[in-house]
Amino acid sequence: MAADRSAMNGRGLGLTVAGQPQPERADAARNRKRIIDAAQRIVRSGGVEALYMEEVAQAAGVGVGTVYRRFGDRAGLAYALLDEREVELQQAFLAGPPPLGFGAPPVERIKAFLHALLDRLQEQSALLLVAETNSPHARYVSGAYRVHHAHLAGLVEQVRPGSDARYLADALLAPIGACLVTYQQDVTGMSLDRIKSGLDDLVDAISKPEN
Amino acid sequence: MAADRSAMNGRGLGLTVAGQPQPERADAARNRKRIIDAAQRIVRSGGVEALYMEEVAQAAGVGVGTVYRRFGDRAGLAYALLDEREVELQQAFLAGPPPLGFGAPPVERIKAFLHALLDRLQEQSALLLVAETNSPHARYVSGAYRVHHAHLAGLVEQVRPGSDARYLADALLAPIGACLVTYQQDVTGMSLDRIKSGLDDLVDAISKPEN
DNA sequence: AGCCTAACCGGAAGACATTCCGTTTACGAT
DNA sequence: ATCGTAAACGGAATGTCTTCCGGTTAGGCT
């Protein structure tokens, strides 16, 4: 399981790249909503640690099996909870004003984008941690990662033409993993600003002309 | 648990940075060895998926509790199994011949080091995946990461003086996480050479003079 | 040699995630 | 309306990891 997470939370929008997966049956859609509401309620009151699949099911008034059929696994559910904010984020860099959106020079857009990801991480680190932790590839398989990657690769291509932009995009997203960043902050006491500066420096390095 | 993994597999050497944690009792040391041997046997025959804590315990002729007291959790055990190779690696870049060891220009040493990490990852991806997956911070808390980080930071400092070398070291290690790399290779079909080239490019970018 | 205690031991109990499968239901086709 | 079937449902069962705790023991000290 968790293999095709993208097909799973397909109705979640932001997290999926989806090729219209075929409509959901009425009862299924209703339960999906109930489950998300219940999960949100639980997280709000008790934090992510309290997000037990069985409790979610009970709070939503469905069986555990239903939660799994709908979201694949715990990570999938976590992603679904992140979706709302993810959609905002995507709109901001796809259609919003500069520097995140179109209009600013690519270097600035990259920096703004990475900063935005970090800010989001600040708010939702616990949830992201769960989402990234269960099943090793969860993060990358999620539609969100693909969208971020595509966006970033496009910008990198402009800033460092002829490079392997797709690889560099992965490399720039890697330091923004929830695991690393929370470690940097919580364990090594690195400040958010320091992290942002470090990333900016990296981006500058990449965008200097090849020769 | 898993909080102080570094203190856990302390006798593992390579993975720990250890401040001599105080000697282990004779029976404890004996059991540690038995457990590691058993675990190695199991992994060799059935792969990491077959590494059940209870089986390890049984094969080692000890109780499960003992495995946990000795290694903290499954990730800790996995790290212990990686230790032998890790020690080799550390000796290679700390005391071995160039380009990994002292003698080559810093840029080359960085590249060689990252390539070495990737090569190691190729051989032991399954084990590394387990080690990194359970408990989000496992990788960073491990002594191995700290050693790698310190080594890399030193080199980065030479190559890009005045930068935040410690941050950049994190950023260079991030794309070599087992999760990302196995994803790149297994899911997106990226070749090892491509990954290495990408990293080399990144390193070159970093080492160009600031202006 | 005998004592004391911190460190160890084993394995049953507990906690969750995930799967399985027999039953029920939505809804397009007839 | 009725029917047939793919899709959904619930929740007991299963599989693992991890914790707990009453009993044991190594080894420093006297």
From TrEMBL, chains A, B:
The keyword DNA-binding applies. It comes from the Bacteria. It holds the Pfam family TetR_N. Residues 29-89 form the HTH tetR-type domain. SUPFAM superfamilies: Homeodomain-like, Tetracyclin repressor-like, C-terminal domain. Residues 52-71 bind DNA. Residues 1-29 are annotated as: Disordered. Keywords: DNA-binding. PROSITE patterns: HTH_TETR_2. InterPro entries: Homeodomain-like_sf (IPR009057), HTH-type_TetR-like_transc_reg (IPR050109), HTH_TetR (IPR001647), Tet_transcr_reg_TetR-rel_C_sf (IPR036271). This is TetR/AcrR family transcriptional regulator. It comes from Saccharopolyspora taberi.
